[in-house]
TrEMBL record:
P5CS plays a key role in proline biosynthesis, leading to osmoregulation in plants. This is Delta-1-pyrroline-5-carboxylate synthase. The gene is P5CS. GO terms for biological process: L-proline biosynthetic process. GO terms for molecular function: ATP binding; glutamate 5-kinase activity; glutamate-5-semialdehyde dehydrogenase activity.
Length: 718
């Protein structure tokens, strides 16, 4: 439990408010999946003995949708030609309220839970008799394990002015359902108020601004003047401004408040488990600066300590952990998919590139492949403690070189949640501790996968073996920990890798760009060449091992071979740019740079004189990742393979084969274009180092007197 969330241990009566933006989809229709997840969480809390009170929005929006349909059904053709005025909001509320409650009743009934409806108006709270009766009624319902569902009775509300005053007592009025929730929390003596939003919590600026940071603990004196609010709620009256006003007032009155996302399927449960999600408002928050937080250093030390406990396990026990991870991935596939779909929807709304969205997407078949790759790792030969070399230094003095884990790895990756699973599995197999920092765009997916993986860790190892870093603000501190972290692996853009290398003394392993080439020689089998370039470009265009540049021998422009290659790419919808020669010959746009990673159905084409010109081009403009030659001339192939300065060089095979799983490594941390320690796909072996074991019978050096060195290599044995 996070130290700043210890107070949830004392919570018994909980008010949950769900807003219109959570209840409805972007098109105004009800978000049935989110409503179902909400009801399931409330049922779970009800079963656990919590007293749960729900404040819901959405009636006006639902009623408006139904009345629009009714008006359309009752209109003549001539009526439809006239301007359509807006529908009366109070009529919408009257129609929508019954429909919304009928839906809640149906959902809760399916879960064997009874719910009740309570409609209130702002003026009611000025009546002391009403307030007492309200409290008595709710207490009776809660004793019977009934979930009261509150909403403002908009249909008959006479409110004229917005709610503006803090909840010093409950005799004020409310303006929206956020302030109603705060008012009810105070009046009903709740222990906690949870406000569900369409974002993760309160940010320092608009959530879609990359410079905005999630505020985990709101301190009025610090944050009130720093925050810039974004747009108001797209459907309701509130928005984040209303939530913050209600939260500040409720917290001031002694009711802790947490604002978190209602899009996640288990955030209410996670709040009550004390996880550090969302933004907390608490009357004592300004005193919490003295509460000890887990620092970056402590997180790294915890990972190292857990890794040492992992190394102490027997090989079969480490294998069983991996098998449990694979089973958990398949068992929780639906939950993972729901969280990933929310990330993808946000990415689409934010206007991210298709290539990023492709890398972000976790389809069920990809989750199944991940589980399969984890099982493959589990079935590999034990990598830790292998004797790599045994030498007799002198009589009965034996020196052994054995494999051992590096220690603690820090992996920083962008927009690929599947990378988290691969890296975590490799860390477990190799006995390393792990700190992971994924991209903001995959935060829900990463959190879900991390939770699934750490949930199966045995107590003897502990979940802190794999730490998930949630804030980029922690990265600079982590990069300073060269005394605890042993290797940094950045997976992402050239800019990311360069920034990491410039910011740390810790060894860095990785590649910046994936500019892969396919060279089609004059002796190539054209049908084979077409098959290879099609696969290299279109199998997964966003992958780092996809072809970005096609180099073609000049003779193929004369015998029709070039045209066949061009037509093959055109049939697959590939957009082509040319180098100076190709653009003139093919009448296509000239590329602005040969050193460009498209990560999409786009590539560059250039004509070259021969294999040596192709090699020179690759060594000048490539990124040292993966290159392929298509040729029937074995001598030319060997020249190409031996002289291209890249981590991988292929003959008559697609660049897409450059992958840890396809190489039989089980998975990969990344593909390294470095020349030290590991190069190419980095699997388990790339995460190991070695130690020297000397076994003697009392020998001493004593100036090397009396020691007869033999230096005999001995056969290896288990």
């Amino acid at each position: 439990m996070d130290p700043t969330r210890e107070f949830v241990k004392l919570a018994n009566r909980v008010v949950v408010k769900v807003g219109t933006a959570v209840v409805t989809r972007s098109d105004g229709r009800l978000a049935l999946g989110r409503l179902g997840a909400l009801c399931e969480q409330l049922k779970e809390l009800n079963v656990q003995g919590y007293e749960v009170i729900l404040v819901t929005s959405g009636a006006v929006g639902l009623g408006r949708q139904r009345l629009r349909y009714r008006r359309l059904a009752n209109s003549s053709f001539s009526d439809l030609q006239k301007p359509q005025g807006d529908l009366d909001g109070k009529a919408c509320a009257a129609v929508g309220q019954s429909s919304l409650m009928a839906l809640y009743d149906t959902m809760f009934s399916q879960l064997d839970v009874t719910s009740s409806q309570l409609l209130v108006n702002d003026g009611f709270f000025k009546d002391a008799g009403f307030r007492k009766q309200l409290s008595d009624t709710v207490s009776s319902l809660l004793e019977l394990r009934v979930i009261p569902i509150f909403n403002e009775n908009d249909a008959v509300s006479t409110r004229k002015a917005p709610y503006e005053h803090c909840l010093q007592d409950s005799s004020g009025i409310f303006w929206d359902n956020d302030s109603l929730a705060g008012l009810l929390a105070l009046e009903l003596k709740a222990d906690l108020l949870v406000l569900l939003s369409d974002v993760e919590g309160l940010y320092s600026g608009p959530p879609n601004d990359p410079n905005s940071k999630l505020i985990h603990t709101y301190i009025k004196e610090k944050h009130q003047r720093e925050i810039t609010f974004g747009d108001k709620s797209r459907l309701g009256r509130g928005g984040m401004t209303a939530k913050v006003n209600a939260a500040v007032c409720a917290a001031h009155a002694g009711i802790p408040v947490i604002i978190t996302s209602g899009f996640a399927t288990d955030n209410i449960i996670r709040v009550l488990q004390g996880e550090k999600i969302g933004t907390v408002f608490h009357k004592d928050a300004h005193l919490w600066k003295n509460i000890k937080q887990e620092s970056a250093h402590e997180m790294a030390v915890a990972a190292r300590n857990s890794s040492r406990r992992l190394q102490a396990l027997k090989s079969v026990e480490r294998r069983n952990i991996l098998l449990a991870v694979a089973d958990a991935l398949e068992k929780n596939q639906n939950m993972i998919s729901l969280e990933n779909e929310a990330d993808v929807a946000d990415a689409v709304t934010a206007g991210y590139d298709k290539s990023l969205i492709s890398r972000l997407t976790l389809k069920p078949e990809k989750i199944s492949r991940l589980a399969k790759s984890v099982r493959m790792l589990a079935d590999m030969e034990e990598p830790v403690g292998r004797i790599l070399k045994r030498t007799e230094l002198a009589d009965k003095l034996i020196l052994e070189k054995i494999s051992c884990p590096l220690g603690v790895l820090l992996i920083i990756f962008e927009s690929r949640p599947d990378a988290l699973v691969q890296i975590a599995a490799l860390a477990i197999r190799s006995g390393n501790g792990l700190l992971l920092k994924g991209g903001k765009e995959a935060r829900r997916s990463n959190a879900a996968l991390h939770k699934v993986i750490t949930s199966v860790m045995p107590d003897t190892v502990g979940g802190k073996l794999i730490g998930l870093v949630t804030s980029r603000d922690e990265i600079p501190d982590l990069l300073k920990l060269d005394d605890v972290i042993d290797l940094v692996v950045p997976r992402g853009s050239n800019k990311l890798v360069s920034q990491i290398k410039e910011s740390t003394r810790i060894p860095v392993l990785g590649h910046a760009d994936g500019i892969c080439h396919v060279y089609v020689d004059k002796s190539a089998n054209i049908d084979m060449a077409k098959q290879i370039i099609r696969d290299a470009k279109t199998d997964y265009p966003a992958a780092c091992n996809a072809m970005e540049t096609l180099l073609v021998h000049k003779d193929l422009s004369c015998n029709g071979g070039l045209n066949e290659l061009i037509l093959e790419l055109q049939r697959e919808g590939v957009q082509m740019y040319g180098g100076p020669k190709a653009s003139a010959m093919l009448n296509i746009i000239e590329t602005s740079s040969f050193h460009h990673e498209y990560s999409s159905l786009t590539c560059t084409i250039e004509i070259v004189e021969d294999v040596f010109a192709a090699i020179d081009h690759i060594n000048k403009y490539g990124s040292g990742h993966t290159e392929c030659i298509v040729t029937e001339d074995a001598e030319v192939a060997e020249t190409f393979i031996s002289q291209v300065d890249s981590a991988a060089a292929f003959h008559n095979a697609s660049t897409r084969f450059c992958d840890g799983a396809r190489f039989g490594l089980g998975a990969e941390v990344g593909i390294s274009t470095s020349r030290i320690h590991a190069r190419g796909p980095v699997g388990v072996e790339g995460l190991l180092t070695n130690k020297w074991i000397l076994r003697g019978t009392g020998q001493v050096v004593d100036g090397d007197r009396g020691v007869n060195y033999t230096y005999k290599e001995q056969p290896l044995k288990a």
